[in-house]
Amino acid sequence: MGLRIEIHSVDDTALLLVAGEFDVSSTSHLMMVVAATRARHIRLSLSHVTFMDAAGLTALVRIAHRTESLLLLDPAPSVMRLLELTRMHNHFAYRWTDLAHFTNAALPSVRSEAHHASAGVAVPEPR
C-alpha cells in the first residue's frame, strides 16, 4: 500500500496528513517531505496510518529532534499501540481533532504545547 502524504502549510507550520503503512520502506520519503517543508512546527495527522513499525517510530523521534515542535494528531490505534508498547507514548504531544474531513482551511491552533528540554520533544502542558 505504501505511504501517502498530503501537505498543508501556513507560515512556519506544516500539517502532514499521513495515510497507509509507515514502515522501513516509507520513512525516508516522510523525512524528505518534512525537510522540504522547512517548517519549524510539524503537525502529523496519523488517523489513517494502517501500520507502523520501529522505523516509523524512529522517524517520529528524528522529526521531533529536528523541529521546534511535533504534534501527533489523531494517532491511529496501531500507532498508539506501538508507542505504548515501546513506552514512547509519554515523549510526544497529541491532539485528538476532527481532521478526517480537513480541507484547505486555516490550520488549527496548536502552539500551546510545552517542550521537554532534555529530549527536545514536545509534551503536553499540564491541565
Automatic annotation (TrEMBL):
Residues 3-110 form the STAS domain. This is Anti-anti-sigma factor. CDD domains: STAS_anti-anti-sigma_factors. InterPro entries: STAS_dom (IPR002645), STAS_dom_sf (IPR036513). PROSITE patterns: STAS. It comes from the Bacteria. SUPFAM superfamilies: SpoIIaa-like.
